[in-house]
Amino acid sequence: MAWTYRITAAARPRLAMRIAQVFDQQMLEVDRFELVRQDAVAVIRICVSCDESLARRIHAKLYRLTDLVQVELSDGAVQGTGEGELRSPNSPPYLDPLGPQP
Predict the structure, then answer these.
(1) How many separate domains does the chain show?
(2) Is the C or the N end of the chain the one with fewer CB within 10 Å?
(3) What is the pTM of this model?
(4) What is the CATH number of the domain that holds 70?
């Protein structure tokens, strides 16, 4: 099944490499990787094919990374799971993706 991750994070050096490493550790091929940077915020969209349990495990692993603010996980049928609405405890307190950016 195809899964899409939409990640909002502080734009920092090696951000893309740290995120890609999570997928590499699970021996997954990334079907699509998009990164858009606007000021101090980066929005990354990653599409992979895997089973649901692995997709949810990766979702949890992504939240452990520093500088990530929000991770949304969706499949082909559902536009969002609701789990991505939680703010990562590792994100910097000054970074609010919904508010004005520094």
Answers:
(1) 1
(2) C
(3) 0.73
(4) 3.30.70.260
